[in-house]
Design goal:
The structure is a homodimer. Chain A has about 450 residues and is of the alpha+beta class. The first copy, chain A, contains 17 helices and 18 strands. In chain A, a hairpin with a 5-residue loop joins strand 8 and strand 9. Chains A, B: This is FAD-binding oxidoreductase.
């Protein structure tokens, strides 16, 4: 459906918009996200939106001139969803970064898309409230991107992903019209769930310019357990034992030995000396300590050692091991961050299958995982000058997907399809589903100007 | 888009399908749900599907002959969503009532649409698991209808609505193709969220023939509080105080004095002698008793009396007051069950506004509410021979909607639009949203044969 943009169309758009940059360095920075994917070119320009009107005007002109627009927030995506190349114009919404309001009584916040995830929690903490979706990148990722990818994080096994915490959205459509989705009440079923349709659509259906977030009471009590295991299989068994004990940890994170060593090297910690696999578990709420005891009983048969703490400082240190896992691995080489989901009981099988992929392909794979919801991040690490989108890394990515599929799982638990995983999407969702998705895309964006080639 | 069906088309379909009934009594029963809505006619026939193939074949023929199909489960809808009239053929899926599998380790169940909500919980209880969405009609409503309306219930403030507990679906599309939506993992973001799009679409996008449900660990501990108040305003203030105390009750139900009297008359209980408004609160989990204490402290300033119990039998009696509210009111007259949602902090304003509607219109309105999520069920009660879709009852319904809208709320929290609320949908969601929804409907059902005129 997309006609190729003419240079004159791009130029006309860039001339007509406010706050445009065509600086080559800025364009190069705006061509990539944190996926490691490097497009063949750089975008023709960047529009820095400073108001909803700027977004409206940019998209109106983009429709007029048939210019492919790549929406961009903080640029921390892990699937190439905001990667941009020659012929594209980047619509950067990071300056739309106001927390518009916080309603502590109703437990809601209204924010612009450029607000960072961590900023929401910093601003709501004084009311004893928190915003539950917490990607590892919380300090640097923005709400717009969280919505685009339906971001998850460590707390979402208990508190749900972005979809469960975004009540309503204002979205600028491809033609510049403003759509309101969802509502400001906790429940509501009037009409189709366009709010859920926008969430996770990776900027292909519209550009989010405002989100009403559901906040939750911050648990008064949190209890933290760190357990070390002789091998990943034992840790996976322990994670299954926690699920089987029918408790609901707020956090249940798995880290393998190789990743622990990388974290230790970066942070000066000693995790890897205590075992070759690690589980971090937090229970929270009024029953945190009681639940912690049940959790410890469940994992004791499998663990080398168990540390428990109610001290917030020590708990934060332990959580930091997980939060720093990705940066620590990035010191070792170029990293492609896998994101497969499997049924929770298949965690051990998934870890074993990843080891077999390494054995077959020679590609190094480190593993961290949100064990409570079966979402693994297998980290393919190649040399700093090697490709993560071609060659052995791509072979390993494909094998990972087939592993997930064989175990009854999914290609992507929370990062999105972006550009990196397009090749396997149809195999997962089926041709009928993909065909319907393409038709829905055409309903929202008949000219195909919004983040073309991404997501679906 | 729909061409009028020819009688010969309907006849051809009814002749070609298995398990067809044209019995007038059965057709009359299949023309209504529990909304009180009475269509002008009755459907031409009923196809009782006994297999997925039966559904496929029926829809294939319906597309061929352009026959409007009204999908029907247990017929307990409260908005006319499964009402059927002359020219319609009802596709009854209530015989697709097998629990296909329960996986206690992964905490999932795969069920057919005709399985009753309560049957899921009966079957999963032995594993210590439960299915969280629990409409008051749990004993008689089926999973297919729960999916069609994105049903809620008493537990959903804490555990989420149907959308949060349905992982994947098999859906037969209008042309007979089988679509799989969602996935069997807790998280997953591959492609658009068609699963959420189908959930709550009131049978207008496809017919659900299988659902994979997420089960949750049944809390080991539950603590119940029943509190009585001098008036509804005091009860609403108490509900707000509970939210402000930043605890998360599993159940928080409001019942007004008139409803209490009706329940007492039916059940032989004495609730109405103890106050003119009632809150039922349950906390659950390892911290249930601690949370209960905080809850009691929060409501004490507002209550006439407070009863607390950890006894399951007594708790069930108290919960029964809520579960029997609708049948009790139905003994008083014909009931139109409102379903507005408001921000939780506006509960008292909503109750006050409903009293004003009664004063203005002379229409009796009783109020029960899921107070923890601001979902009120204002019950319009008219004489057994009066209309609930025309005259004063309709005026009251319209005023209710505008009250909800004025308070920042919604027309329907969990029952759906069906036929009863179509007149106000566009005003709530806006013309742009409705236009997009109609285009999405056309993507799934280009001939417009699926539950025409319902929902959107």
């Amino acid at each position: 459906m997309t006609e190729l943009p003419t240079d004159s169309g791009v130029n006309a758009l860039l001339t007509a918009c406010r706050n445009v940059s065509t600086d080559p360095d800025e364009r190069a920075r705006a061509s990539i996200d944190r996926s490691g994917y490097v497009p063949g070119g750089i975008p023709d320009g960047i529009v820095y939106a400073e108001s909803v009107d700027d977004v409206v005007e940019t998209l109106r002109l983009a429709s007029l001139y048939r210019v492919p627009i790549v929406p961009r927030g903080a640029g921390t995506g892990l699937a190439g969803g905001s990667a941009a190349t020659a012929g594209n114009v980047v619509l950067d919404v990071s300056r739309l970064n106001r927390i518009i309001s916080i309603d502590p009584v109703e437990q809601q916040a209204v924010v612009q898309p450029g607000v960072l995830n961590a900023e929401v929690n910093a601003a709501t903490a004084e009311y004893g409230l928190f915003y539950a979706p917490d990607p590892a990148s919380t300090a640097i990722c923005s709400i717009g991107g969280n919505v685009a990818t339906n971001a998850g994080g460590m707390w979402c096994a208990k508190y749900g992903v972005t979809r469960e915490s975004v009540l309503s959205l204002q979205v600028v459509l491809a033609d510049g019209q403003i759509l309101k989705t969802g509502r400001n009440t906790i429940k509501g079923v009037s009409g189709y769930d366009l709010n859920a349709l926008i969430i996770g659509s990776e900027g292909t259906l519209g550009v989010v310019v405002e989100a009403t977030l559901r906040l939750r009471p911050k648990p008064l009590h949190t209890a933290t357990v760190a357990a070390y295991f002789a091998n990943p299989a034992a840790a996976a068994q322990a994670a299954s034992a926690i699920i089987a004990a029918r408790i609901q940890p707020a956090i249940l994170e798995f880290i393998d030995g190789g990743t622990l060593a990388a974290v230790d090297a970066m942070m000066g910690t000693d995790h890897s000396s205590r075992g070759n696999a690690f589980l971090l578990a937090q229970t929270d709420g009024y029953g945190a300590l009681l639940e912690q005891q049940v959790l410890i009983e469940a994992i004791t048969p499998f663990a080398l050692s168990i540390e428990q703490t109610d001290d917030d400082g020590r708990a934060a240190e332990l959580v930091a091991a997980r939060r720093n896992a990705i940066p620590a691995l990035q010191l070792l080489g170029r990293v492609s961050i896998g994101d497969i989901g499997v049924p929770r009981k298949r965690l051990a099988d998934a870890v074993q299958g990843l080891a077999e992929i390494t054995a077959r392909t020679g590609v190094k794979i480190f593993v961290i995982a949100h064990a409570a919801d079966g979402n693994l991040h297998p980290m393919v690490v190649v040399g700093h000058n090697e490709s993560i989108t071609e060659g052995p890394a791509k072979v390993a990515l494909g094998e990972m997907f087939h592993l997930a599929q064989r175990l009854g799982g999914t290609l992507t638990g929370e990062h999105g399809i972006g550009l990196l995983k397009r090749d396997w999407l149809e195999e997962e969702v089926g041709s009928l589903s993909l065909e319907l998705q393409k038709k829905i895309k055409a309903v929202f964006d008949p000219l195909g100007i919004l983040n073309p080639g991404k997501g679906i």
